[in-house]
Each structure stands twice: as structure tokens, then as C-alpha cells.
Amino acid sequence: MTIRLQPDEGVDIQVLNKVPGLDHKHNLQITKLDLSYSETFNQTHLADAYERLLLETMRGIQALFVRRDEVEEAWKWVDSITEAWAMDNDAPKPYQAGTWGPVASVAMITRDGRSWNEFE
């Protein structure tokens, strides 16, 4: 999944689909679902994040803001994760961008007798 920011806001997702047809073959093909905000909403100008934020502030609309208690609860959740990592001495495993993930992911899935499906 790719989330595109300014100036071409949008989201695209690549998924693996069965090629349509009535044969019994299960040919798979990577397809792309692409949402472009400017094309979908036919707008030449989309307000940037700060433009909208300032406008909502002037209107007294707080929907784009997080309350203090929400922030505190979110940090409790994040802190519980980092504390668990510290106690287990099991920090997130780094890996190279564009790869299938850390080497440890192979061990995690093979211990249950499974394997990754590697498609080109």
C-alpha cells in the first residue's frame, strides 16, 4: 500500500488477483487499485493540511484535534508495547526496504509448517 502526499494526494494498493475466466487455471496477476483525490473529486485545488486545520480552528470545529485524554491513552498503549519489548529483549527486527521482511519472519511462519508465497 502506498499513501501519496502532496501534491498528488491518493492511495494505491497492489493486490494479487485471479485472472478472470472460466478455465480451471489459477493464473494470478498483480493489479493496482488507485485512488487519486484530484481525479476522483474533480478538483484542481485541494486544501493542504494546514489550510484546512486553520480554517477549522477559526470555525471552532475540533474534529481534527485530539483531546488530551486521548493522547494520554494512546501513549499508555505505546508504552505497554515498548515495555514488553524491553522485558523480552525482543526489539523490532530491522530489514531492507522492498524485501519480504526480517529473517526472523521466516522462522515465525515455518514453525507452524507454513511458508511465504513469493510472487514476482
Automatic annotation (TrEMBL):
Lineage start: Bacteria, Pseudomonadati, Pseudomonadota, Gammaproteobacteria, Enterobacterales
Highest rank taxon of the organism: Bacteria
Keyword Oxidoreductase applies: yes
Glucose-6-phosphate dehydrogenase C-terminal domain mapped to chain residues: 1-117
Organism the protein comes from: Salmonella enterica I
Enzyme Commission number(s): 1.1.1.49
One Gene Ontology cellular component: cytosol
Record bears the keyword Oxidoreductase: yes
Ranges in a coiled coil: none
The name this protein goes by in its record: Glucose 6-phosphate dehydrogenase
